[in-house]
């Protein structure tokens, strides 16, 4: 099991009070491990947000949540062929994956040094994980996210070689398709056109929260367990 962090001193708003038309649920709190684990278990995730010219820590629960059904990933023949060219590793280069996802060269970059530090701490406690695609001893692409019970909350992915991030996603889906697959939840926050092309669907917030509640007491997938690393 992951190492339990110190409890958060913050109280998030009850979901019954969330604005049904607004993805943003709350502002403030911190990025301590206990706060993050609590938030993900409630269906929230953090991102920086600027309001009236000031930067805040925002907590989001999209009204329409992006979810990838484990039987819904669209895998082309060319992607299957590409997958043979990469070696998949789990949690061997977490900091490098997060750093690549947070590269300042990315136009939509939001992964600040504070976020990199926070998720690095979560990783060392066994709550955050990376799925990596390697070729010829070089990290070619990958993704990272937070795993709480049967939830895997995907945060970001990157590639340095064609198809490398998709190969990592394919590997993650195959990892999650175990005997608990019907209760696992692969969350990608929002559905974008790119993610929709891979099979990501939108789920109403209430449906997502219900599925989350069913997933939290599911064991972690074997490769993510601290005692297996």
TrEMBL record:
Q: What is its EC number?
A: 2.3.2.6
UniProt main location, coarse? cytoplasm
| Matches recorded under Pfam families | Leu_Phe_trans
Q: Does the keyword Transmembrane apply?
A: no
Keyword list (alphabetical) reads:
Acyltransferase, Cytoplasm, Transferase
Superkingdom as given in the UniProt entry? Bacteria
One GO MF term: leucyl-tRNA--protein transferase activity
Where is the protein found, in the record's own terms? Cytoplasm
Its catalytic activity? L-phenylalanyl-tRNA(Phe) + an N-terminal L-alpha-aminoacyl-[protein] = an N-terminal L-phenylalanyl-L-alpha-aminoacyl-[protein] + tRNA(Phe); N-terminal L-arginyl-[protein] + L-leucyl-tRNA(Leu) = N-terminal L-leucyl-L-arginyl-[protein] + tRNA(Leu) + H(+); N-terminal L-lysyl-[protein] + L-leucyl-tRNA(Leu) = N-terminal L-leucyl-L-lysyl-[protein] + tRNA(Leu) + H(+)
Give the protein's function.
Answer: Functions in the N-end rule pathway of protein degradation where it conjugates Leu, Phe and, less efficiently, Met from aminoacyl-tRNAs to the N-termini of proteins containing an N-terminal arginine or lysine.
PANTHER family referenced in this protein's UniProt entry, alphabetically: LEUCYL/PHENYLALANYL-TRNA--PROTEIN TRANSFERASE, LEUCYL_PHENYLALANYL-TRNA--PROTEIN TRANSFERASE
- Tell me the protein's name: Leucyl/phenylalanyl-tRNA--protein transferase
Q: Which species?
A: Nocardioides pini
Which gene name belongs to this protein? aat
């Amino acid at each position: 099991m992951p190492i339990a962090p110190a409890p958060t001193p913050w109280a998030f708003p009850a979901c019954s009070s969330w604005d049904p038309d607004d993805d943003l649920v709350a502002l403030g709190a911190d990025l301590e491990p206990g706060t993050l684990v609590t938030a993900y278990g409630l269906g929230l995730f953090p991102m920086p947000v600027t309001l009236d010219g000031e930067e805040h820590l925002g907590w989001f629960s999209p009204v329409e949540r992006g979810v990838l059904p484990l039987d819904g990933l669209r895998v082309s023949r060319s992607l299957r062929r590409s997958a043979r060219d990469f070696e998949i590793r789990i949690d061997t280069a977490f900091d490098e994956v997060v750093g690549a996802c947070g590269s300042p060269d990315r136009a939509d970059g939001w992964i600040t040094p504070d976020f990199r530090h926070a998720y690095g701490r979560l990783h060392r406690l066994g709550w955050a994980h990376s799925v990596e695609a390697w070729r010829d001893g070089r990290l070619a692409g990958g993704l990272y996210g937070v795993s709480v019970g049967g939830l895997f909350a995907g945060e970001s992915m990157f590639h340095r070689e064609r198809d490398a991030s998709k190969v990592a996603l394919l590997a993650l889906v195959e990892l999650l398709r175990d005997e608990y697959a019907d209760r696992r939840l692969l969350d990608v926050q929002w559905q974008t056109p790119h993610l929709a092309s891979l099979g990501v669907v939108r789920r109403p917030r209430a449906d997502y929260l219900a599925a989350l509640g069913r997933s939290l007491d599911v064991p972690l997938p074997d490769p993510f367990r601290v005692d297996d690393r």
